[in-house]
Amino acid sequence: MPRALDRLDFLLCRPIVGLPVFFFVMYGVFFLSFSKPGEWMSGYTETILFGLTEALADFLLSAGTNPKAASVINGILNNTASVLAYLPQTAIFFFLIKGLEDCGYLSRVIFTADRFLSRFGLSGHALLPFLIGFGCYVPAMEASRTLTKNERKILKDSLPFLICSARLPVLFFLCEAFFPKRKAFAAFAFYLLCAAVFFLSSLIASRGKAAPPLAVLLPDFRLPKLRILFGEAWKKSRDYLIRTATVIFLCAVCLRICSIPISLTETEEPKNLLSLFGETLSFLFVPLGFGKPPFAAALFSGFFAKENLMFVMEMLSPKEISSLLSLPARISFTAFSMLYLPCFSSAAAVCKEWGAKEMSVFLLRTFVTAYSISWILYTLSEILVAFVQN
Questions:
Q1: What confidence tens digit (pLDDT) does each residue in 13-66 have?
Q2: 132 falls within a domain
Q3: Taking the model in full, what pTM does it have?
Q4: How many CB atoms are closer than 10 A to CB 380?
């Protein structure tokens, strides 16, 4: 058995074998999270939560509550429930990632990735903030404090392009809405896209500076303890619940208030603030294929909390979301949603540590990068669709 593990170590630590294996392992993680059992668990959770909200709405109406007020309360609870429905998939994802870490596999990936990361001015130790970045930008930057100043600057500019835990339910939502038959593959493809943008950004930010040497201890392979894995899944789920019960719920209340139609004069057609925001900003996204008010308003609200994007699209879209956009536009919108401005807390963290000027550059850089990548994807997809149809 030890000899077999030594051979496995030898193979996994060779880039020609280790990196392809890593891609297959990560695809397996996404398949289990997005397809069964994650899809099955999320479906039951959604049914239960929406059943409870409907029961509460019926109770409010039977108790004599104003129908409009009951409708607003029901909408707020439905928006919050739509985010909570993705809790099982998020828990499964972090359960599996923790399992890979505890069994000793991720340490091999760090060693294997060092030579690859050195081309981008990063050492293998930067893989830890990279992986934490899939959870949240702020703790990822905290984890980078042990790295060199140059590495920290590279990560500060590049980590926002990774899909964090706040973007994860949005990705679930968009893949189910836009690519229902290939949602696991689509989710994995967009993860790879964001990782590719991360490395491109790192290459530009490194400016040819060499990465520091790597020193890493490879632990023995071992079976992870289920208690620790479930503890990690519970920790992430608890954070998710707290965020949903506080930030997301308050955002849902504000968005519902902003969605109430108002008119300044009797002759004027009632409009809500979200629609006005969407109509004002929609022209910016015409070159990307989704220059329509619901999508512009959704992206604007997503800056404050990424989950808001789902709420606004559901509130402002009069029919199935997928029917509003062509296939190239769906690809473009999903890519932009995953890459554009990080949330408000990430921008505040950059402002606190690097200053307001650096924060402004940080926000502009992420927006321009997301816009450019989405435009390229939209243009290439349009050409490919036209070629296939002809």
A1: 777 777 788 878 877 777 777 666 666 777 777 778 777 777 777 777 777 766
A2: yes
A3: 0.70
A4: 13
